[in-house]
From TrEMBL:
Membrane topology annotation: Single-pass membrane protein
Taxonomy of the source species: Eukaryota, Fungi, Dikarya, Ascomycota, Pezizomycotina
Catalyzed reactions: 2 Fe(III)-[cytochrome b5] + NADH = 2 Fe(II)-[cytochrome b5] + NAD(+) + H(+)
Keywords: FAD, Flavoprotein, Membrane, Mitochondrion, Mitochondrion outer membrane, NAD, Oxidoreductase
Family to which the UniProt record says this protein belongs: Belongs to the flavoprotein pyridine nucleotide cytochrome reductase family.
Source organism of the structure: Aspergillus cavernicola
Protein name: NADH-cytochrome b5 reductase
Role, per record: May mediate the reduction of outer membrane cytochrome b5.
Length: 323
């Protein structure tokens, strides 16, 4: 899970220096002083040598990667833990074969999942973006919402601990590096939030990355807002750099966020101007959201034309990326 990052400056340790007389007592030999100084110097030399050896020995090593892409093929992972997040959403942990391995995913990228129905029908393959940190050794986590007649989501929700699922990847998406853009905007619906979370987490865990982030997240009901606690942690920790706006089709009584669908008026209000320097708008969600906000992408390698609300507001194709 994502955890709040707090950066504190370590206070320098106060060192007390014992004062020694600069003049030896009269009539006494200076030999003991020389011996003491020599031993102290020898001790300091040994300490410096040993510290250097320790520093070399403790240098971090690169952990092996589970997913290497290319011709690797499918990797079979065992389900080790299930956490119920809502009436239709679970967080599932899948263990790596080796506890000191990491996923091998970069930002931003996803994985394919596959299972073959018991009747021997055509294998079901769907992409998912893990919500666990890419540097997390030993396992990955998926947050999966169960959709009616969704063959993969239903299969995953029916899995029990110790059952296994096939994964393949990584599938590179939008390559990120610190401060690539001054301000990014994440427009998401439903489970389209997972690649947005992956990107936001990477930005805020890097103290060198000063990118501003605005999230607009649409859902049916309040209980459908995935990863809300994690985003609230970000908003509380980085109030000057992260803002989140939630929109619900069926809001509860007393709801202070947006109501209905993500509208042109809302995006015009909360997103930076299209003429702003070095911005990027990311879109991810169900087909209806793509159609309304940006238009669909043609294929993983073809973003398609920019249409919908973002086009009407004056953004150009190069300012928008469709996950």
């Amino acid at each position: 899970m994502f955890s709040r990052h707090a950066f504190r400056c370590a206070q320098p340790l106060r060192q007390s220096v014992r004062q020694y007389s600069s003049e030896a007592p009269k009539g006494k030999s200076l030999a003991p002083v020389y011996v003491a100084v020599g031993l102290a110097g020898l001790g300091a030399g040994i300490y410096r040598y040993n510290s250097g050896v320790a520093a070399v020995a403790e240098a971090p090593k690169e952990l092996p990667k589970v997913f290497t892409g290319g011709d690797q093929g499918w990797v079979d992972l065992k389900l080790s833990n299930i956490e119920i997040l809502s009436h239709n959403t679970k967080r599932l942990r899948f263990d790596f074969p080796e506890k000191d391995s990491v996923s091998g995913l970069q930002i931003a990228s996803a994985l394919l999942t596959k299972y073959t129905p018991p009747d021997g029908g055509k294998p079901v393959i769907r992409p998912y973006t893990p919500t666990s940190d890419e540097d997390q050794p030993g396992y990955l986590e998926l947050v999966v919402k169960r959709y009616p007649n969704g063959p993969m989501s239903e299969h995953i929700h029916n899995m029990n601990v110790d059952q296994r699922l096939n994964f393949k990847g990584p599938l590179p998406k939008y390559p990120w590096e610190a401060n690539k853009h001054n301000h990014i905007c994440l427009v998401a619906g439903g489970t389209g939030i997972t690649p947005m979370f992956q990107l936001a987490r990477e930005i805020f865990k890097n103290p060198e990355d000063k990118t501003k982030v605005t999230l607009v997240f649409g859902n049916v009901a309040e209980e459908d807002i995935l990863l809300k606690r994690e985003f609230e942690d970000l908003e509380n920790t980085y109030p000057q750099r992260f803002k989140a706006f939630y929109v619900l089709d069926n809001p509860p009584k007393g709801w202070t966020g947006g109501k209905g669908h993500i509208t042109k008026e809302l995006l015009k209000t909360v997103l930076p101007e299209p003429k702003s320097e070095n911005i990027k708008v990311f879109v991810c969600g169900p087909p209806g959201l793509y159609k309304a906000i940006s238009g669909p992408k043609v294929s993983p390698k073809d973003q398609g034309e920019l249409t919908g609300i973002l086009n009407e507001l004056g953004y150009d194709k190069d300012q928008v990326y469709k996950f």
